[in-house]
Write a structure and sequence with these properties.
Layout: H1 18-21, H2 25-31, H3 35-59, H4 82-90, E1 95-98, E2 112-116, H5 123-134, E3 138-142, H6 147-154, E4 159-162, E5 168-170, E6 188-190, E7 195-198, E8 204-208, E9 214-221, E10 224-229, H7 245-253, E11 260-263, H8 279-299, H9 317-331, H10 335-354, H11 362-372, H12 376-383, H13 389-400, H14 402-407, E12 414-416, E13 421-423
Parallel strand pairs: 1-11, 2-3, 2-11, 3-10
Antiparallel strand pairs: 4-7, 5-6, 8-9, 9-10, 12-13
Helix pairs in contact: 3-8, 10-13, 11-12
């Protein structure tokens, strides 16, 4: 049975010990619970904490804004793209939110795919989007994480850099005779976050700042087109209604009636359960659970039986001897069983001394003893050994005189049956 620690004892006046009196209400409540109740309370607390944490994480999954992941068409927050999706749908474009990975999906080459600020982009997804562009698709990427697409399309070391943002970026259609027409009626763009592409050699610059640093670039890749925005902020919900940002969003789609596919798997929507949570949120949830467990543990005493007050010693010597005696008593209880082997050995030695067969008759034994000068009583005790203490004493006395009897010529030995001793012969 498991030992249970005794409750704190009160003093002579019935007061509570000072350490318990100064404890918090939670600690006093915890001390009053049994081990089973503490285990149940711990499990319930952990379940509640995990559920509350998951509810909170579900409402803010992925991240940076209260309305959902940054640059996701599902996000209603200021950093989301839901307004862009609504605008495209209202302008006659078919809008698709792709939750599965591009590698496992079929992207039509007549569509425009948008990848903005990707958080989860595997090599397989990158390769699938590359095949989509090569087949004639239009791919619009945005943010620093889109750098591999620009480098892969151009084969050059194009890098994303950051500078001071401009309040408004202006399109100059007259310079180099180009690219004002590429953005249609777009003249002013708000929401610049300072991202730039450099160097932009070999790329078509669709939008640049006053220092001619590229903000939006494009390039033809075989049958398809890649358009890269250094920042996705001009397309965000907060900025879409500013300046000509709405017109810019529609121009990026690439033509009327073209399907717009938001790649949402890069924001974690393709996963289910805990896999859909960012790793930072998983670590935060694990920290909350650990804090709860350690808090409950520190408020109460250790689980399990109380530790002993003293070290358990080996059993006392008397108890040990008594136990051994009890075992021996169970093994052999009759005295004859204990002294029998000794008597048999003595009979064999006596027979060898007298020169008779150990199984000879008593008459032969007595005759041999008479010839050897031994007391016939010795022969009688040896051939008919007792089964009590007298027999044991006889064996002891006989053994004590064995050496002398076997090395010297002695007179007859006599046995005192009252004391169990063997009398020495008179040699004088």
């Amino acid at each position: 049975m498991t030992a249970v620690a005794s409750p704190p004892e009160s003093d002579d006046h019935g007061s509570v010990p000072p350490d318990l009196e100064q404890a918090s209400p939670l600690a006093r409540w915890w001390d009053g619970l049994s081990r089973a109740q503490r285990a149940a309370a711990t499990v319930v607390g952990i379940v509640l904490a995990v559920n509350v944490g998951l509810v909170g994480l579900r409402s803010t999954i992925g991240g940076g804004s209260p309305g959902g992941p940054i640059s996701s068409s599902y996000s209603t927050g200021g950093a989301g793209l839901e307004a862009f999706a609504d605008l495209a749908r209202a302008s006659g474009h078919r809008v698709t939110r792709l939750k599965e990975s591009p590698e496992s999906a079929t992207l039509p080459s007549t569509a425009t795919a948008l990848v903005a600020d990707p958080k989860r982009l595997t090599q397989d997804d990158f390769d699938a989007l590359g095949r989509f562009v090569l087949a004639g698709g239009r791919l619009v990427v945005a943010g620093e994480a889109a750098t591999p697409f620009v480098q892969g399309a151009t084969g050059r070391d194009v890098r994303w850099t950051s500078t001071d943002p401009s309040a408004v970026l202006e399109v100059d259609p007259s310079e180099d005779g180009d690219d004002g027409a590429a953005l249609g009626s777009v003249r002013r763009v708000a929401g610049d976050a300072g991202g730039r592409w450099a160097p932009a050699d070999g790329l078509t610059v669709l939008l640049a700042d006053r220092e001619r640093r590229a903000v939006i670039v494009s390039t033809e890749v075989e049958a398809g087109t890649l358009v890269a925005l250094a920042d996705a902020e001009p397309l965000h919900n907060d900025n879409l209604a500013s300046e000509d940002n709405a017109a810019l969003a529609l121009e990026l789609i690439g033509g009327s009636g073209r399907e717009l596919i938001f790649i949402e798997s890069v924001h974690g929507f393709g996963a289910t359960g805990l896999d859909a949570l960012p790793s930072s949120w998983k670590w935060a949830a694990a920290g909350v659970v650990l804090a709860l467990v350690f808090g409950l543990w520190s408020a109460g005493s250790r689980f399990g039986p109380p530790e002993p007050d003293a070290r358990k010693l080996r059993p006392a010597r008397l108890e040990h001897v008594t136990a051994v005696a009890a075992d021996l008593e169970r093994v052999s209880r009759a005295p004859a069983e204990l002294v029998g082997p000794l008597l048999d050995a003595n009979r064999a030695e006596l027979a060898d001394r007298l020169g008779v067969n150990p199984g000879a008759s008593e008459a032969v034994w007595y005759r041999a003893a008479e010839v050897a000068g031994l007391d016939p009583a010795v022969v009688r005790e040896g051939t008919n050994p007792p089964d009590d203490l007298e027999g044991a004493l006889y064996i002891g006395a006989l053994a004590a005189h064995h050496r002398e009897a076997s090395t010297e010529t002695t007179g007859p030995l006599s046995v005192d049956h009252r004391t169990g001793t063997v009398a020495e012969p008179d040699t004088h």
